[in-house]
Amino acid sequence: MKKISFKRNQSIKKVVIRKEELRKGIYILPSLFTCGNMSFGILSIFSSISGDFIQAAWFLIGALACDIIDGRVARMTKTTSEFGLQLDSLSDLVSFGVAPAIMMYTLVLNQMEKIGIAIAVLYVLCSALRLARFNVLAQSGEVQKHFVGLPTPASAGVIISFVLSYQLLAPAEYSLNFKTIPALMEFMPAFFKIMPVAIVVLSFLMVSNVPYTSFKKIKLTRIRTIEVFALMIVLIILIVIFPQNTIFIIFTIYAASGLLFYIPRMLLKRKNKQQKTETTEENEM
Fold first, then answer.
1. Longest dimension (CA), the chain
2. How far is CA 108 from CA 75, 142, 191, in A?
3. What's the pLDDT score for residue 129?
4. Nearest CA to 81 among 128, 34, 151?
5. Is residue 12 part of a domain?
6. Phi, psi values for residue 213, rounded to 5°
7. pLDDT for res 17
8. Contact partners, residue 65, CB within 8 Å, separation at least 6
9. Whole-number CA gyration radius for the chain
């Protein structure tokens, strides 16, 4: 009876703590950046509808910046809350789910008629499922060292950076005067053709169980190795010289990194299982 009452008291305490967290109200500073994230997403949708895809992509870059800052500010000021988590997910769904889907539909997918609509809807649904699963895992209290599935901002980042790089193929009077990486720019027209397939792959990666590295707990003020510091300097230089191309490469490598590490692990696990079953069968014989 004592054990049962103790468990009941613990569950009551947990409910009370969660209610207290909900009563904390709105933390202004991180919530302002989160609202900025959603605002940029809405502006991007308007720009995509009007046909200004470059402006739409830059608005989503602003949304990405706000998404990074609001999380950092909340952790630094210790103002994380249930309200902030839900608002952040809603903002991410607008900016990194709906906005990229509309941008790619108006740019590429509308030529495929019903199939294009289906791909755009699939992307939005997978974004929503990914964010819902993230909220459930966050509320469970378990410490997650890695993201489960491709994060929605990273998935949107591939699409956004592609649009910004593809812009550089336009005539000089319509594009900004940025330096480009010639080898990558030669690949861009081919990537444009396979973009519908890429969107489907990104959609399934979001709802997959593939682990992705989380950079949330990395403290940029405390870089322990000189190699990481040197790599950061190189990345900053490349972004300054080749902004669109470098951002596209970074997001694409990150999206592919999960599969590159996940597939070999799965193959090794299968081999180990086969070896164990073979050894057990030999012992039984």
1. 80
2. 38, 40, 12
3. 95
4. 34
5. no
6. -65, 135
7. 46
8. none
9. 22
Q: Among all chains, which residue has been given the structure tokens 């169980």?
A: 209
What number of residues does the chain have? Answer: 285
Residue 6 lies in a domain: no
146: which strand partners? Answer: 213
SS (H, E, C) the chain: CHHHHHHHHHHHHHHHHHHHHHHCCCCHHHHHHHHHHHHHHHHHHHHHHCCCHHHHHHHHHHHHHHHHHHHHHHHHCCCCCHHHHHHHHHHHHHHHHHHHHHHHHHHCHHHHCHHHHHHHHHHHHHHHHHHHHHHHHHHHCCCCCEEECCCHHHHHHHHHHHHHHHHHHCCCCCCCCCCCCHHHHHHHHHHHHCHHHHHHHHHHHHCCCCEEECCCCCCCCCCCCHHHHHHHHHHHHHHHHCHHHHHHHHHHHHHHHHHHHHHHHHHHHHHHHHHHHHHHHHHHC
Domain that holds residue 165: 22-280
Q: How many CA atoms lie within 13 A of 51 on its CB side?
A: 0
Question: Is residue 51, in this structure, part of any structural domain at all?
Answer: yes
What are residue 148's DSSP bridge partners? 211
The structural domain count of the chain equals: 1
**Is the residue at 9 inside a domain?**
no
pLDDT of 224: 63
Which residues in the chain show pLDDT less than 70?
1-26, 141-144, 169-179, 216-225, 271, 274-285
